[in-house]
Amino acid sequence: MSKSGHSHASVSGPALKALKSAAVRPPRPSMAGQFNGEHLATVRTAGGLVWRIKNGTLQVQMVHRPRYDDWSWPKGKLEHGETHQAAAAREVTEETHNAVILQSPLPGTRYQLATGQWKTVTYWMARRASRQDNDLGPLMARDVVKPASAEEIDTVRWIDAQAASAKLTRRADRKPLEALMDAHNAGILDTRVVVIARHGTALARGQWHDGEGTRPLTPIGHAHAAAIVPVLAAYGVARVVSSRWERCAATVEPYVRAANVRPWFSDNLTELSHERSPERVAATVTQLLESSTPSVLCTHRPVLPTVFATMKEFSTEVVADVLPKKNPYLRPGELVVAHVATVDGRPLVVSVERVAPELY
Would you tell me which CATH number, out of the four given (3.20.20.70, 3.90.79.10, 2.20.25.90, 3.40.190.10), belongs to the domain 22-186? Predict the structure, then answer.
């Protein structure tokens, strides 16, 4: 039996419901609204459901906004050029006064404001960051966050998940809570990431004659490298693994510098070595999936089929169906974020996201 079949067979009942809802982040809703015939941009916000287990009970963190006199999840608007992931990590940190690490995505919400604009909220599960070594680097790679004022958030409270539903002011906010509780019941609440990155845009092969290993990034490629930094930091990436070739090494370099982590550059992840021994690539991916440390692996387009084929062997059937299958698999600078739980002592990819940070 394949690893995929074994893992899927070991999860049943409420787990299947949780896995199906968590497999892929819902597509982003329409980015525009209409009001009195006037085109209005959608208000994009992001946040998280911070959870903990206390005395065997699942608890979530809720915030009270005195301006609206409501209880809700910590969230807020995206700043110009900000990714949903960076906004979620920042806003939750601002409103709860504690840094967090994003985990699996949750169902988002969409509703219309009094102005006629549509508002979308993208949510993730989140855990509070700790002082352990794995969290320090990603926190260093983030911008300094100023806590929200008492006029914005006057109360932050841990509440038992079962009681939180009744306390929420907006009925729509129950949807991500239900998905969080399903994941808890299924034993897949606590996840870490393995991020697969394709290097940023490089100089065309025909324009470089000094060997494939030294072909550099273009200015757009360096912009790709800078754009992934806040995404990796939001997910708590603490291990960087990359092809030794220049275009991959340069793609992870801004994050390595920002997070002050020591990268591992491997000849096994280059195009040439992959042609000779794809098994070594598969072994590296397996090691990252089995590790408890959130990680990123940066490699080349011709290597990606082996990367995703290996990941598929550790995925649920739902997730395996949505992993990239066709060339080019990922665009330059694009990421696949795999959320990995441990089920019956084995790594299991329970959800994935494709992330292509915008360039500014």
Answer: 3.90.79.10
